[in-house]
Amino acid sequence: MSAVTAVVVGLGYIGLPLAVSLALADVQVRGVDIDQLRLNEIARGRAPIHEPELADALTRAIASGRLISSNDAAPADAFLVTVPTPLDIDRTPDLSHVRDAVTLIAPHLRPGNVVILESTSPPGTTELVSRWLREARPDLRLPPLCTEPDIHIAYCPERVLPGRIMAEITSADRIIGGLTNECAQSAAEFYRRFCTGRIALTTARTAEMTKLAENAFRDVNIAFANELASLCDPIGVDVREVIELANRHPRVQVLSPGPGVGGHCVAVDPWFLVAAAPDHAPLIRQARLVNDARPNQIVAKVNQLLEGATEPTVACLGLSFKANVDDLRSSPAVEILDLLASGHPVAKIYAVEPHIDALPAVLVKHANVHLTDLEHALDTADAVILLVDHDVFRAINPAVLPAIVLDTRGIWAER
Ligand code: SAJ
Fold first, then answer.
1. 35-80: pLDDT as tens digits
2. What residues does 352 pair with on adjacent strands?
3. pLDDT at 212
4. Within 6 Å (CB) of ligand 1, which residues are found?
C-alpha cells in the first residue's frame, strides 16, 4: 500500500489514541486540537490523559516522526473527525464541534479525499457534514447528491472501552456507513491499514443508529440492575446474591448495580435517540431517568447509615466514572460527594482518587471536602463509602474498614 496522510481533528479520549495508532501503522498523521496546552503536552510526548499503554505508544509515535500536532488542518488523504458531541441543556445533541471541525478541514479538501466522522452522532449527522462541506466548498462534487463525488464521506463510530482503548482501537470490529457504497468502501480501505477486527459496511444512517443502539442497550441493562437494587433494599434481600443466582440461568445475564451511570457515552448517547424520536423511546428515556436517580438514592442510604453519628468523617473511595480510569466526566461519584458535602452535617469528607492531582471545581467549592491518600482516609474515617471499583480499592483488606461501610459496587461482598 502507498503511504497515506491523515488529519485527525480532536485529540481527546478517542482522537489521540487514534492518531497515535495510525502513526504507528505508518500513516503520516497531523493531530489537530483547539487546546494549545494539550498540543504542547502531546508535542513533548506527554499524554494529557491517563489510558493504559497510551503514554508509551505516544512516545514511540512522536519519535517515529509520523505524528505532529497542530491547531490547524492541512491537505491530507483522509480526514477523521473525533470531536465531542455533548448534550445541550435541553438534552438535545450539540453538534457545534462537528460543524467547527468541518469548517476547519473544508479549505484543505482535494478530490480523492475521504472524510470520516467517528464522533457519536444522531442519525443524519453524516448527511449534515456533507451539506456543511457543500456550503463551504461549492466547487466540490459531494455525496450523496453526486454519483461520482470528488470526496467520499462516511461514518465509522468509535466503539472502544475506556481502560482498553489502545488494544480495542485496532482490534474492535468496525461498522462503516457510507453516504454511498463507494464512500463506505473507500473508508474501509483506510481502516484496513490499521484495524484487525472485522469491518461491516452499511449506510451512514444505519451506522449512526447502530452506535446509539449499543450504548442505549447497555444503559437499559444497567438501569435494570439498578432498579433491582432499589427494589431489593426495602424487601430486605441482597441484590448481589439475587443477581449471582439469577445469572446461573443460561439465558439471564444481569449487569451490576452501582452508584449510577457516568462518562460521556452511555450516560449521554441514549438521549440522542430520545431527541430523534421522542414519542418512540419511552423505555430508553426511563432507563436514563432510573440511572440518573441513583446518586440521590445512594446519598439517602449514606444519610441513613450515618444517623446518630455526630459530625462524622467520611471517606469516599473513587471519583472517576468507572474503574481504573481518570475520567471524571458526568461521574456519579462526583455528584454523590457534591450532594453529601452540601446536605449532611459531616465534619469532613475525604475524597480518595489515585488517578487525579486536584479536585474538580464542583468539589473545590466545599470547604469540607479534601483530596486525601487512601491510607490516611482509612486510618481516620468513621465511615467508608466505596464509589468506584478501582483495583487499588479491591486490594483493601475489609478487616481494616470502620464499622460503617457502604460498598456501592459490591467489591467487598464477602466482608
Ligand atoms: N456500569 C454499571 N454497571 C455495569 C456496567 C457499567 O454501573 O454493570 C457503569 C460504569 O460504572 C460507568 C457506566 O456504567 O459509570 C458506563 O461504563 P461502561 O463500562 O458500561 O461503558 P463506557 O462508557 O466506558 O464505554 C461504552 C462502551 N459501550 C458499550 O459497552 C456498549 C464502549 O464500547 C463505547 O465505545 C463507549 O461507551 C463509547 O465511547 O461510546
1. 999 999 999 999 998 899 999 999 999 999 999 999 999 999 999 9
2. 317
3. 98
4. 120, 158-162, 214-215, 218, 222, 255-256, 258, 261-263, 265-266, 321-322
| Catalytic hit among 183, 195, 211, 322 | 211
Backbone angles phi, psi at 121, to 5 degrees: -140, 150
For residue 389, the ligand 1 atom closest to its alpha carbon is: 11
**Number of neighbours of residue 237 by Cβ within 10 angstroms:** 12
Supply the Cα-derived Rg of the chain in whole angstroms: 23
Q: Give the model's pLDDT for residue 2.
A: 62
For ligand 1, the distance from its centroid to the CA atom of residue 174, given in whole angstroms, is 18
Q: Which residues of 276-308 are buried (b: 16+ CB within 10 A; e: fewer)?
A: beeeebeebbebbebbbebbebbbebbeebbee
Q: How far apart are CA 136 and CA 100, in angstroms?
A: 12
pLDDT band at 274 (very low <50, low <70, confident <90, very high): very high
Of the candidates 74, 83, 137, 128, the residue with the CA atom closest to the CA atom of residue 106:
137
